[in-house]
UniProtKB/TrEMBL annotation:
Cellular component GO terms, alphabetical: cell outer membrane
Membrane topology (UniProt): Lipid-anchor
Upper taxonomic lineage: Bacteria, Pseudomonadati, Pseudomonadota, Gammaproteobacteria, Oceanospirillales
Keyword annotations: Lipoprotein, Membrane, Palmitate, Signal
Protein name: Glycine zipper 2TM domain-containing protein
Localization: Cell outer membrane
Main location: membrane
Length: 155
């Protein structure tokens, strides 16, 4: 029983770590589909920066699915006969809920709300992930890059 529970925890941890490696939301990371695409550029100066938290994923099937599998396996080792089936179901449900919460926590990111006064006088605010612990600072000259409805702030 201890061996199976230990293996189940190892499998859950591995699957969650692999599944939680989602796309970065920094200003310097591009998806494959963004490469070789035109980005409209505007220039401005950072007016203010506010630290924010970007919520973790709760729509992913990885955490829920992995948790349910591991919970079901662990739960099926409890009791005997029909008790094993009940244990498997309860373990799967509890594991799914726990796996979902672990995935949400593991994918939560430190973000920054950046307010930029553009050269044309317009003021924009957007949120993006903090890149390497480095926040933008008021007074810095930046570029806003826009493509396909997504905008990022970059130097």
């Amino acid at each position: 029983m201890k061996y199976i529970s230990g293996c189940a925890a190892l499998v859950l941890g591995s699957v969650l770590l692999a599944g939680c490696a989602g796309p970065s939301l920094t200003g310097t990371t591009y998806s494959r589909s963004e490469a070789r695409q035109v980005h409209y550029v505007r220039y401005g100066v950072v007016d203010s920066v506010t630290p924010v938290v970007i919520e973790g994923r709760t729509d992913g099937a990885v955490g829920t699915g992995a948790g349910a599998i591991v919970g079901g396996i662990a739960g099926s080792n409890i009791g005997g006969g029909s008790g094993r089936a009940v244990g498997a179901v309860i373990g799967a449900v509890a594991g799914g809920v726990l796996g979902n919460k672990i995935e949400a926590s593991a994918t939560r990111k430190q973000g920054q709300e950046i307010t930029v006064r553009l050269d044309n006088g317009e003021t924009l605010s957007l949120v993006q992930e903090v890149d390497g612990g480095k926040f933008f600072r008021p007074g810095e000259r930046v570029r806003l890059l826009e493509s396909a409805g997504a905008t990022r702030v970059a130097y």
